[in-house]
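A.,

Following up on our hallway conversation. Structure tokens first:
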């Protein structure tokens, strides 16, 4: 059966056309702080990057590195108490400068998110059809009958078998992989230009994980979306991404293409993530990075990774290293990195 790509929302929230060669997303100096009893906690710290249409940026790091906080800041889901600085320019408009009503209007039509746990992302008391149809009608002026047809089309697009039967099912009646595909279908209701994926394969077994990654690749090609794919698994990032940004303590410490990150590793933290993974043909045991990530409310002076770094020098504790450009596609934040 032929699958039609869902059209963009029929509301007025249609993103403007980009100039040729212009990035879809430009993030500049993005910072997110939360008030705590011990002071401000900086979860995202001066993050900057560009993302072109149809490209996948893999964001890699341990839990607590600021990956999910960055996605929620881009989407506009932080609490009112959060202090947000910097720019998130999507389709030529700064999302940070928008009012809450404007952010709500473009959420789902310009940018959508696939959350980590599909069971908590779906309401257990409503059927798949009810949840899809409600979302479709929220972002369009379709009738209920047309919205049901669109829901069927979306389930087919995300490769759910027997979509007619799955449409009437409740989340608890579906496997983890099926639930995740429904969550992806919900995110694609208005065919967004930017898709944020927050560790969407973490709760899935290896075989289902591989199928979901294949699905993301297929959807990116069909719909021409840009994707930010957050993961703690370097193998997953290398499999899905065109470029990788490695985050630690809220900052990007290394960024480059997949070959840059895997073959020309420049930052000790990235090297530690590589050595903690099992590689093909490896005969020795993986080596864990010693210690634990720092308290984001009390970051150490200088390089945040210095307390865990096996090659740290005295100067690492003195000042925060700049993000040094190594090549046109590769940069790293480390005092040991020579300028290219």
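Then the amino acids I'd put at each of the 340 positions:
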């Amino acid at each position: 059966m032929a699958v039609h790509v869902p059209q963009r929302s029929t509301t007025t929230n249609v993103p403007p056309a980009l100039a040729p060669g212009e990035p879809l997303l430009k993030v500049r100096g993005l910072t997110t702080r939360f008030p705590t009893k011990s002071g401000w906690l900086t979860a995202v710290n001066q993050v900057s990057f560009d993302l072109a249409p149809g490209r996948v940026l893999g964001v890699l790091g341990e839990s607590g590195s600021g990956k999910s906080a960055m996605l929620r800041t881009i989407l506009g889901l932080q609490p009112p108490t959060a202090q947000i600085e910097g720019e998130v320019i999507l389709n030529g408009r700064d999302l940070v400068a928008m009012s809450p009503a404007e952010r709500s209007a473009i959420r789902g039509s310009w940018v959508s998110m696939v959350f980590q746990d599909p069971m908590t992302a779906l309401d257990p008391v409503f059927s798949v059809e009810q949840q899809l149809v409600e979302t479709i009608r929220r972002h369009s002026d379709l009738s209920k009958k047309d919205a049901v047809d669109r829901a069927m089309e979306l389930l087919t697009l995300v490769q759910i078998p027997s979509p007619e039967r799955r449409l009437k099912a409740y989340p608890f009646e579906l496997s983890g992989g099926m639930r995740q595909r429904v969550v992806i279908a919900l995110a694609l209701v208005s065919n967004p230009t930017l898709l944020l994926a927050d560790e969407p394969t973490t709760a899935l077994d290896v075989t289902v994980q591989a199928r979901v990654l294949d699905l993301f690749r297929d959807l990116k090609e069909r719909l021409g979306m840009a994707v930010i794919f957050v993961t703690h698994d370097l193998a997953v990032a290398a499999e899905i991404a065109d470029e990788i940004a490695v985050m630690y303590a809220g900052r990007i410490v290394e960024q480059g293409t997949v070959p840059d990150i895997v073959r020309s590793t420049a930052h000790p933290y990235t090297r530690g993530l590589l050595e903690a993974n099992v590689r093909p043909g490896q005969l020795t045991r993986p080596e864990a990075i010693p210690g634990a990530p720092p308290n984001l409310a009390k970051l150490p002076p200088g390089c945040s990774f210095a307390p865990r770094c096996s090659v740290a020098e005295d100067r690492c504790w003195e000042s925060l290293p700049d993000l040094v450009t190594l090549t046109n596609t590769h940069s790293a934040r480390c005092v040991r990195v020579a300028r290219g």
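Residues 41 and 297 are 4 Å apart (CA to CA). Curious whether your intuition agrees with the design.

B.
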